[in-house]
Amino acid sequence: MPIDILIVDDHLHAREGIRMILENYNDFKIVGEAKNGQEAIMLTEELMPDIILMDIQMPVMDGLEATKIIKMKFPSVKIVMITVSDDVTNLFDALKHGAQGYLLKNIHSQHWYEYLRAFALDEVPMSKEIAFRILMEFSPNKPKKTLQHDLLSARELEVLQHVAEGLSNREISKTLFISEHTVKSHLKNILSKLHLENRVQIAHYAYRQGLID
């Protein structure tokens, strides 16, 4: 089943460029386009896409505010911020508002495909720099450890630490000499046991509990 994608960008040529990239792959289906955050919210409610590709700087309502509202209303919808700059400031803000990933507009089209496929399968590692800034923002001081992660098995704890360090599922499988399927299974258990939703929250948790430096 193809992955339904909503494109949100105020520039027509940018939307056309993204569409041209993704239409080369049968894995993706473009279900709609929006030129600002308000339209994105309305189309999300109407179309319920799997993934939204969200520009940051837009008129009427920018991508940050739209992301915040969409994630509050439709938490299952995944949002990837798209930007021309690798400056982490806006991307960091976007992740704080609920986005789960980001793409640079100028990277090769094959990288778009690989990233979005992995993103749809919850396999995209987090940028170490962005993860670190999130941890610094939310955790200026480490509190004392709690016993919550005692619910995890020794292997699950290893997987948690590697995820928090920014490793992908494939890298974790090679490091621990286990299959990617087993990594996914451990990751699912970790999220369930700790009542977390994504890799960003795992990194945040690991830092707060003193499980990583």
Would you mind describing this structure in some detail?
The chain is α/β, with parallel strands linked by helices and 213 residues long. The chain is built from ten helices and five strands. Strands 2-1-3-4-5 form a five-stranded parallel beta sheet, with helices on both faces. Strand 3, helix 3 (63-73) and strand 4 (78-83) form a beta-alpha-beta unit. The termini are far apart.
Tell me the name of the CATH class of the largest domain: Alpha Beta
Instruction: Identify low-pLDDT runs.
Output: 140-147
Q: Which value, in Å, is the CA radius of gyration?
A: 18 Å
Strand content: 5-15%
Regarding quaternary structure, what we see is single chain
User: Structural class, judged by helices and strands?
Assistant: alpha/beta
- What is the N-to-C order of secondary-structure elements (H for helix, E for strand)? EHEHEHEHEHHHHHH
Average of pLDDT? 82
CATH superfamily of the largest domain: Response regulator
**Principal-axis shape:** globular
Task: Give the strand line-up of the largest sheet.
Answer: 2-1-3-4-5
Short description:
By secondary structure, the chain is of the alpha/beta class. The chain has helices spanning 12-22, 37-47, 63-73, 88-96, 109-120, 128-138, 154-164, 169-176, 180-194, 199-208; strands at 3-8, 28-34, 51-55, 78-83, 101-104.
Write the layout of secondary structure elements.
Elements: E1 3-8, H1 12-22, E2 28-34, H2 37-47, E3 51-55, H3 63-73, E4 78-83, H4 88-96, E5 101-104, H5 109-120, H6 128-138, H7 154-164, H8 169-176, H9 180-194, H10 199-208
Parallel strand pairs: 1-2, 1-3, 3-4, 4-5
Helix pairs in contact: 2-3, 4-6, 6-10, 7-9, 7-10, 8-9
